[in-house]
Amino acid sequence: MTVSVNVPSGFADRPMGMQDSYPGFAKRRRVIENRLVDFFDEAGYELVSSGAFEFVDTLLRARPFEAAREWVQLFDGMGNAIALRPEMTPSIARMAAPLVTAGKLPIRWSYAERVYRRTNDPASLSWASGKAAESTQVGVEWIGEAGAAADAQVLDLCHRATLALGLQETQTVVSHARLLPALLKALGVPGELVADGLECLTKGDYVAFRAALPSELPDVLGVLQAVTPYEPDSLAEATTDAVWQSETARQEMEAAWSSLVLLASAVTDLGLKEQVMFDLTLHRDITYYTGLVFEVFAPGVGAPIALGGRYDDLLAQFGSAAPAVGLAFEVERVLAVLGAPMTAADTFSAGSLGEAANRVGGGL
Q1: Which residues of 52-80 are buried (b: 16+ CB within 10 A; e: fewer)?
Q2: From the CB of residue 163, how many other CB atoms can be counted at a distance below 10 Å?
Q3: Going by C-beta distance under 8 Å and a sequence separation of 6 or more, which residues neighbour residue 104?
Q4: Would you tell me how many other CB atoms lie within 10 Å of the CB of residue 222?
Q5: pLDDT in tens, 136-159
Q6: CA-to-CA distance for 333 and 127, rounded, in angstroms?
Q7: Is the pTM of this model over 0.90?
């Protein structure tokens, strides 16, 4: 429950997006981090860590330059452009590349680190509903294994991790990074309009997505919402009347669909069909994904508490090609689901915080 507290003036402000962690919240966050790290360790993933800064060039591997707009950047003493890591996957790929070259596969690593992004939102809003300036990610990366069976195992690992956290009502939403772009190209949508449409879907704006595409195009959203890889023939049936403009793109779309059908079968075999739903309108703005993409939702939080995907081409950007798949939990969003106190007002009673504020404020 949020408590309204009148804090006197005179306190130092924080940079936009930064959040202090008071007793209760800080301890519970550490408990969640440790619980996930221990769970992944028992599953065979060894804990690793990396520096908070990466070269901008490292982070741009397999990503467009525009992605850097969300990063906190500066120059080191040698004049090199560096940035606070916005996520862990590029750092893990950089660390793993020498081992991949040496043939040390498979690699199963876990991590628990803070990540950073530019934001104009206060932390109290962005932690639970959007991209926070600073947040905690605990995740795993599995390097050296390809295919639907491995993807299903990662979804199973993620589901069992949510149960270990005490989350019972989660739903995993799954798609394929290349299916929708290939479908649009196969229908003859120009490349720039494909990019515009995908950006709309990343924001969940279906109205803008429809507006971004040529008016003569079939109802793409209707097709995507009518099909499911649990019914392998559903895509062919929904696109019977489609007029394909690119055979290459159509074949790429069918290859992506076939991999999802295999994944649906593997998910069913693992008993996860009720927890895993396919939503082919799901699109992530991380361009290095090559196959599986997924997000995990829980009641009470408007953003995914965990997310991940397959990135089979990223390691090649560091000189050592290898298939890879991973996932990450957003710890602060998990805490929001669990009802942890998120702010000073949540943590303290109005009286105790007011008394503390008066003591500090009176000394300034």
Answers
A1: ebbebebbbbbbeeeebeebbeeeeeeee
A2: 12
A3: none
A4: 11
A5: 999 999 999 999 999 999 999 999
A6: 6
A7: no
